[in-house]
Amino acid sequence: MQYLVSVIDDVNDPGSSDRRPLISAFNERLMAEGHWVFAGGLANPEAATVIDNRGERPVFSDGPFMESKEYLAGVWVWEAPDLDVALALAAEASKICDRKVEVRPFA
User: Fold this and answer.
1) Between helices 20-32 and 83-97, what is the axis angle to 10°?
2) Which pTM was predicted?
3) Which distant-in-sequence residues (6+ apart) come within 8 Å of 105 by Cβ?
């Protein structure tokens, strides 16, 4: 089963910025163990554009979908045999990247 792991940062209490070497080593381990599908960091929320094309014309809005002190900073997509494995990996990921993470299975 595949899981979306969202990395959550906080403007008032940001995670450490010096975690790249640890995250790279963790990613290499995920690859070696067959859990890696995809990962990527995201630009700051101010770089976002929201598009709503449910009306007659699309409406483009600068900035994030929601104004919040917490924001999506990056994502992983993992392959894991079950939720327990995904949660164990997510606990490690949270420690390694010094941020909260959310785990959600794909439907």
Assistant:
1) 160
2) 0.88
3) 1, 2, 3, 4, 83, 86
Whole-angstrom distance, CA of residue 79 vs CA of residue 106: 10
- Rounded Cα distance between 46 and 7, Å, is 17
Helix, strand, or coil (residue 13) = coil
pLDDT tens over the chain, length 107 residues? 999 999 999 988 888 889 999 999 999 999 999 999 999 999 988 899 999 999 999 999 997 776 778 999 999 999 999 999 999 999 999 999 999 999 999 99
* Residues facing 100 on adjacent strands: 8
Token readout for 29 is 């381990």
CB 43 within 8 A of CB 71: no
The two tokens of residue 87 are: 């949660």
Gap between the Cα atoms of 8 and 15, Å rounded: 9
